[in-house]
Design goal:
By secondary structure, this protein is α/β, with parallel strands linked by helices. It has helices at residues 3-10, 48-51, 60-70, 84-96, 110-127, 147-151, 156-159, 180-193, 216-227, 281-285, 306-319, 322-342, 371-382, 404-420; strands at residues 27-31, 34-37, 42-45, 101-107, 134-138, 169-172, 196-201, 205-206, 212-213, 232-236, 260-263, 275-280, 348-354, 357-362, 385-386, 393-396. Helix 8 (180-193) packs parallel to helix 9 and helix 12 (322-342) runs parallel beside helix 14 (404-420).
Length: 421
């Protein structure tokens, strides 16, 4: 029995309606920007396997660092113990995080990093004796699949059956030149009439909302307005962090920095799961007390796993290298050139780019997981390119080490797609 048939016996895949899509493609190897299936077919990984493997798959530098760590310390409880990889990672992360970030709380994945950020915001005010139990979030946001993260998300395809169990959330539109004054007015009304504890936001790029982008200036005005009312700012940088926007973090584009930052995905370079929620000294101090109940009682078995920390440290070394920064600049320029070729195509409704993130919208109505979207996905795979359209949005977020030839293969497959939809 082949891998595909064996898969069908017991496995339940994410974001999959198995009655409609019951056949999974076995991937047996990955190297650099290329995935290889069980029949030897190669695919350029145009989305870094959900924005994780930004330095390329099976990167030798990262593998060597993790392999060395395996010989020394594989796993230890992080409550009551510490270890060198976590300490070194904290020191290196703090160097590149916004200057107001001081403390790091480790967990397992992007959803839990946001869950912890929400808990920090709610408990911060609780510990100070303030009744603030409402979160604020953007419309069309997506922050994960755990209950707090779902609560502040608003994509109903994910949330429908669970909405009766959510925490209280108010929503505002993402800022535009046209609506910013109205949004600021809405914020002033909300902080007067609702007990707003924190604002959870994807800075500049809403990933699951089909790479919807908004301006740094507009977001900065929103953050400034909320800061005046002591609303904790929780930046969900799970997708946008570690170089993808052209800076280390999307928050680097704003003058107003978050109180809390949520990170995962590329944190460990796509090798193993791990997440970090960072915060300011001010937030941490609200939990620092003789009363044990004021502590943040949240924990995961694999918190700060030494192997994951080693992978993250190796990734940070690569991110800050001259070679990787040059690669990022090269891809940014390449996307801009491609955009000039396709932005006026009759099938293209809109294009946008921030850093290495590039997206275009087709001027065709399409369901998020419908037949036409599936036709596009199959076209890309048949072209030897792994792209995962979000409805009528085609986007690229390829590894930083993707070659010019591989980028051209991605671009050509998109141009061909424009002729067949």
């Amino acid at each position: 029995m082949n891998l595909t048939d064996r898969d069908k016996k017991h496995l339940w895949h994410p974001l999959t309606q198995h009655k409609l899509h019951n056949t999974m493609l076995p991937i047996v190897k990955a190297k650099g920007a290329v995935l290889t299936d069980d029949k030897g077919n190669d695919y350029v990984d145009g989305i870094s396997s959900w924005y994780t493997s930004v330095y390329g798959h099976c990167n030798d530098h990262i593998l060597n660092k993790v392999q060395a760590q395996m010989q020394q310390l594989d796993q230890v409880v992080f409550s009551g113990f510490t270890h060198k990889p976590a300490i070194e990672l904290s020191e290196e992360l703090i160097k590149i995080l916004p200057k107001n970030q001081e403390k790091l709380f480790f967990s397992d994945n992007g959803s839990t990093s946001v869950e912890i950020g929400i808990k920090m915001a709610l408990q911060y005010h609780f510990n100070k004796g303030e009744k603030r139990n409402v979160m604020l979030a953007f419309e069309d946001g997506f922050h994960g699949d755990t209950f707090g993260a779902m609560s502040v998300s608003s994509l109903s395809v994910y949330n429908g059956p669970f909405e009766d169990f959510f925490i209280d959330v108010e929503r505002i539109p993402v800022p535009t030149e046209e609506n910013i004054d109205a949004v600021l007015s809405q914020i002033e009304d909300l902080v007067k009439t609702k007990d707003i504890a924190g604002f959870v936001y994807e800075p500049l790029v809403q990933g699951a909302a089909a790479m919807k982008m908004h301006s740094a200036d507009g977001l900065n005005k929103i953050l400034s307005a909320l800061k005046k009312h002591n609303v904790l700012l929780v930046a969900d940088e799970v997708m946008t962090s570690f170089g993808k926007t052209g800076k280390y973090f999307a928050s680097d584009y704003m003058d107003i920095k978050p109180d809390v930052m949520c990170m995962s995905k590329a944190l460990t370079a796509g090798l193993v799961p791990m997440a970090v929620t960072s915060c300011t000294q001010k937030v941490y101090d609200a939990f620092y007390d003789d009363d044990i109940s004021k502590g943040l009682f949240h924990g995961h078995t694999y918190t700060a796993n030494p192997l994951a920390c080693a992978a993250a440290l190796a990734g940070l070394e690569l991110l800050q290298s001259t070679e990787m920064q040059s690669n990022i600049s090269r891809i940014i320029a390449s996307h801009k050139q491609f955009n000039e070729e396709v932005k006026n195509h009759p099938k293209v409704n809109n294009t946008r780019q921030l850093g290495v993130i590039y997206a275009l919208d087709l001027n065709i109505k399409m369901e998020r997981y419908g037949n036409l979207r599936d036709k596009l996905f199959k076209h890309f795979m048949n072209s030897g390119v792994f792209l995962r359209p979000l409805g009528n949005t085609i986007y690229i977020l390829a590894p930083f080490i993707t070659t010019d030839e591989q980028l051209q293969k991605i671009y050509n497959s998109i141009k061909e797609a424009l002729e067949i939809v």
